[in-house]
Amino acid sequence: MNAISWFELPAIDIERAQKFYEKIFGITMLNLDNPNLQMRAFPFKNIMDGVSGALVCNKDFYTPTANQGALLYLNANPDLQQVLDKVSEAGGKVFIPKTKINDNFGFMAIFLDSEGNRVGLQSIN
To answer: d(Cα 99, Cα 107) in Å, to the nearest integer?
Structure first.
């Protein structure tokens, strides 16, 4: 079992945030807008069997933060440097460059996304 089943990253501008994540990960996000909020989901095979999440925009409920609250690490296997190299060009900022955790857990990095969220990356290489 995974400790995490779903995550949501706040967005001020959902279109800008979607473009940022599609560019750095080379993915296409799924539009899950509803009457209460704008939402773009990260790709997933079967949400009941794994972990996924979405960008969300609702100014009354979500606020991006660079220095408070939980820190989410996204899977950037096989090598997070391939993702990190795209962050600045996509409108983000690298906070902590690729750093070795240890031989068992691989590497980590932290960046600010286009919305001002502090987000981590983790990979084996």
So the answer is: 5
- Among 99, 4, 104, which Cα is nearest to 50's? 4
Asked if 121 and 94 count as a contact pair (C-beta separation under 8 A), the reply is: no
Q: Could you confirm whether domain 6-123 is CATH 3.10.180.10?
A: yes
- What's the pTM value of the predicted model, to 2 decimals? 0.91
50-99 pLDDT, tens digit each: 788 999 999 899 999 999 988 999 999 999 999 999 999 999 999 999 99
What is the pLDDT, as a whole number, of residue 70? 87
Token reading at 92: 């983000």
Looking at this protein, which amino acid is placed at residue 114?
S
Say if residues 112 and 10 touch (Cβ distance below 8 Å). no
